[in-house]
Amino acid sequence: MRKPASEGSGGLDALTPRERQVLRLLAAGVSTRETAARLTISPKTVETHRVRIYAKLGCKSAVELTRIAVRTGLIEA
Questions:
Q1: Nearest to 11 by CA among 77, 76, 64, 61
Q2: At residue 64, what are phi and psi to the nearest 5 degrees?
Q3: What's the average pLDDT block by block, 10 residues per block, for the chain (77 residues)?
Q4: pLDDT tens, position by position, 41-61
């Protein structure tokens, strides 16, 4: 099993481009259903990406995920 990436800039390097897109939208407060519609993927696929993002970044909550996105400049506070 893969070790969680650190929260620093290297953490986002572990994400695929699609995972970054999903992270950006979810961290901005966009719902799973709306994220799926914007990216033309299914809500189940969004959930799969979410689980993988959490594992790669070592997050346990949406709040942690949002903090990482803000700290790394992926979204603005």
A1: 64
A2: -60, -40
A3: 46 93 95 97 98 94 92 87
A4: 999 999 999 999 999 999 999
Total-model pTM: 0.82
H-helix segments, the chain: 9-13, 17-27, 32-39, 43-57, 62-71
Q: Report how far residue 24's alpha carbon sits from residue 75's, in angstroms, rounded to the nearest whole number.
A: 6
Which two three-digit tokens encode residue 1?
């099993």
Ordered by where they begin, the domains of the chain are 9-71 (1.10.10.10)
**Hey, is 77 helix, strand or coil?**
coil
Length of the chain: 77
Do residues 72 and 11 touch, judged by C-beta distance below 8 A?
A: yes
Neighbours of 67 (CB within 10 A): 15
